[in-house]
Amino acid sequence: MIRPNIPRRRGFLIIEILVTIGLLVFVFAAAGQLFRACILASYDSGNAANQSSRLDSALQILRRDVWQSATMQVADPQSLELSTADDQKISWRIGDEAIVRTGPDAKITRWNGIKLKLQFAQDGPTLLISHAGPPIEQPISLVSQLMLARTP
Amino acid sequence: MMHRRAFAMTFAIILTGLVALTLASLGSACFLEARRTAALAADAQLRQLLLAGEIEAQSRLAARSLSGQTSISIPGDLADEATLILRPHPGETIIQIDATLQRRHMSQLLTFAQTDGEWRLVSAQLLY
User: What structural domains does chain B harbor?
Assistant: First the structure.
């Protein structure tokens, strides 16, 4: 019987397969981490931009209210009562995840999704808004033009 | 014939694309944040100018030297890039103060009343 002269292909050693599997696991783990970090970074930066935009919008209205206020009263760190020169009342309240303004006409405006634990404090004609830690390291100062002008 | 599937290359390209997208997104967020910070700093300066404008308006009312639109000279480094203008409305009890800094602008409307011969501010409204 004549055996055909077919060249035999060499197989893989078990050690080669184990090393390959080890390398693949390492590469997939690193790729997974990279993928997760990329997705989280995009998500977090979007959330942060959204929150800062809502906070800016609320602060712009609050600054205008404080600027024209004739009296200011911080009953507790989460609530603020303002009254204008023509005795219109405006109140602000900081909730768990929202800032709420009640205008002189009892119209309620809410800024939802602000997860910062903000606190009000008063220093003469200045309203201070503070937060323990980032992103607001130092208190934000909002001044009342009317109260400042009347301060002797 | 053996088909090369180029799995590793495809995988690497996808990952590189993902990282590039994330970097672009973070870069855009950083740029917007830097621009917002610059705008907030300019706005803070504008409010300081408005507060100074109120003091100036009150002193000019007391001295009866406010006649028509008046530009207030600003001292120091701000002189080149900022302006402060008092615009009395007819009757002179309402004065609009306009402040500009670089390309940003802010105004306030002040109402004064005279009691016992002294001008007092009775209302202030911040205009954007």
Answer: 8-127 (3.30.1300)
Angle at B59 between CA B55 and CA B64, to 5 degrees: 145
Residue of B nearest to A48 (CA): B29
CB contact, 8 Å: A86 with chain B?
Answer: yes
End-to-end CA separation in angstroms for chain A = 121
Please name the residue of chain A whose CA is at the shortest distance from the CA of residue B47: A143
CB-CB contact of A114 with A97 (8 Å): yes
User: Is the CB of residue A47 less than 8 Å away from at least one CB of chain B?
Assistant: no
Contact B102, B81 (CB under 8 A): yes
pTM: 0.80
Question: How far is the alpha carbon of A48 from chain B, nearest alpha carbon, in Å?
Answer: 9
ipTM for the whole predicted complex goes beyond 0.95: no
